[in-house]
Amino acid sequence: MLRSYLARVFPIDVLREIEGSLAEMGRLAGVDLYQLQLADRLNEPRLTQWDAWGNRIDKIELTPLWRVAERIAAEHGVVATAYEQKHGSLSRVHQCALAYLFTPSTDIYSCPLAMTDGAARTLLGSGNQALIDRALPHLTARDANEFWTAGQWMTELTGGSDVGLSETVAKPDANGYRLYGRKWFTSAISSQIALTLARPEGNPPGGRGLALFYLETRDEHGRPRNIEINRLKDKLGTRKVPTAELNLVGTPAQLVKGTTDGVRNIAPVLNITRLWNGISAVALMRRGVALASDYAGKRVAFGAPLSEKPLHADTLAGLEAESEAAFHLAFYVAELTGQSETHEISEDDALLLRLLTPVMKLTTGKQAVMVASEVLECFGGAGYVEDTGLPVLLRDSQVLPIWEGTTNVLALDTLRAIDSLRPLQLAVTRCLETVRDHDLADAVRVARTSLDHATSWLAEARSAGQPALEAGARRFALTLGRTMELSLLIKHAQWSHDQEQDRQSTAAARRFAQSGVDLIF
Ligand SMILES: Cc1cc2nc3c(=O)[nH]c(=O)nc-3n(C[C@H](O)[C@H](O)[C@H](O)COP(=O)(O)OP(=O)(O)OC[C@H]3O[C@@H](n4cnc5c(N)ncnc54)[C@H](O)[C@@H]3O)c2cc1C
After folding, report:
1. Residue 173: enclosing H or E segment and its boundaries?
2. Which residues line ligand 1 (CB under 6 A)?
3. What is the pLDDT of residue 521?
4. 288 contacts 371 by C-beta, under 8 angstroms
5. Which of 12, 60, 236, 475 has its CA 20 to 30 A from that of 49?
6. How many A from CA of 27 to the centre of ligand 1?
7. Tell me: the pLDDT tens digits for 76-112?
8. Handedness of CA 425, 426, 432, 433 (dihedral sign)
């Protein structure tokens, strides 16, 4: 799937240039990192709050795989590739392909990388030259000794969705500000820097009164800078990610951009972390489907391998279709993100990117959980047993619809992003207009009718009023996501049929079209 997609979007000479980096990452993920991951299964990060002499140290020890993953991520440019821009807007796609290969074997090390990428993009766009000079070379370093990761500390006890309620206060001092407050979910607390929200003293309540701050988490001796780590969260999944609850007790921090509008100013972080969320979703789906397909050839039941049982084959085909559809949407958002970063994006596509970022995140997040759950079932009882290494797929996937904006919160954001559906209609038309294969005709019809239904629903719900609009927002956003997925899958299927004489994507498109695209009812 990845090879076929890359052959479609990259010019052949560029593909030849980047192929080596992807093959090497594939080898690492399939062999070295995978073996380490299996050996690391029972390890978890540890917090030591006090040393033997009663000093507060709040030391975090990472798992062995995470320490290796950090080095490999830096050296292979899993963040840097997007900033070096050796191949213009396609550098973002190249980077996402590296992340896609890297993610399934690195125990959600994608989490700090996503936030690092988001911080780099935000600082670059902030115009704050001092912070850019200070942090960017580290965030985009390929030398592991120079590489820094970033955290994103938004969620407080008062809310993760409604961050306007944040209670952290910023008091000015001679060198900038000092922050006082309690952050309730801070992932990858091992990061060297964080972007966070706080309310400068005297500012009004609500999101506008918050400002965006930059802080460095530890001093030159490795001690937290006026940060107390209260505990690490005991989580369902992402258990290798040290997610902390912490108190800011006069933490030195600097303004990134102005003394207000922090929620708006942190949005670039979220656009990037949502893209990573989608890439992680498709990466985990791919790992699960690959394992389930492999097992189906080996497990014999009722006299034949499962792969020869029509119902099991149909189950796998459904999973394959979901994962291919999700793949194309996530990578399409990567393409648009790259075009936006290199200022090559049209006005319509800029609006499309604004719309598809939440739509893609919420759609692929839900698919990842569904696919992981079904993958476990494909292994029967073994899928439920820890030392197969399978249950972690489901636990880790379950975070994808929650962090970086829940499904409902992003569905409401989708409504805010829509002035009209025109950019999406244009994109769907572009995908479908050149399709000639008769085998794709039904799928094309499903994509068109789903989009028409979404368009008419939006008009009706708008006239029915805000409660009706909000109540249907999730079904609407999922319908847009699945319609766009189907359209991209059809486009790829036609291309693959023509250029590669391959019918795999055609089968996936036909199957996906029957799996519920219009969810509005
Ligand atoms: C493993 C993990 C790591 C995390 N790491 C970080 C981190 O590093 N930094 C960080 O800042 N945060 C982090 N978070 C927090 C995460 O981003 C929040 O949990 C998430 O945004 C939801 O916020 P909440 O928990 O306050 O839930 P709430 O906002 O209370 O939401 C509860 C429910 O209400 C729904 N809801 C909320 N508002 C509406 C509405 N208007 N209409 C309809 N439904 C609504 C939501 O969809 C959800 O189902 C992490 C979370 C997890 C699980």
Report:
1. strand 169-173
2. 151-155, 159-161, 185-187, 235, 238, 243, 399, 402-403, 406, 408-409, 412
3. 85
4. yes
5. 236
6. 36
7. 999 999 999 999 999 999 999 999 999 999 999 999 9
8. positive
Structure confidence by residue, pLDDT tens digits, 246-293: 999 999 999 999 999 999 999 999 999 999 999 999 999 999 999 999
Name the amino acid, one letter, at 451.
Answer: L
Summarize the chain as % helix, strand, coil (round to 5).
60, 15, 25
How far, in Å, are 295, 299, 307, 313, 513 from residue 303 at the CA level? 15, 10, 12, 15, 32
Going by DSSP bridges, is the β-strand pair 150-153/211-216 parallel, antiparallel, or unpaired? unpaired
pTM for the full predicted model: 0.98
Distances (CA, A) of 431 to 187, 278, 328, 371: 38, 21, 12, 25
206 Rama sector, left if φ>0, alpha if ψ -120 to 50, beta otherwise: left
Mean pLDDT value across residues 130-143: 98
Determine the pLDDT at residue 494.
98
248 token code pair: 């800011």
Which residue from 279, 283, 294, 285 is spatially nearest to 320, judged by alpha carbons? 285
> Cα of 81 to ligand 1 centre, how many Å?
30
Angle at 128 between CA 151 and CA 75, to 5 degrees: 50
CB 214 within 8 A of CB 148: no
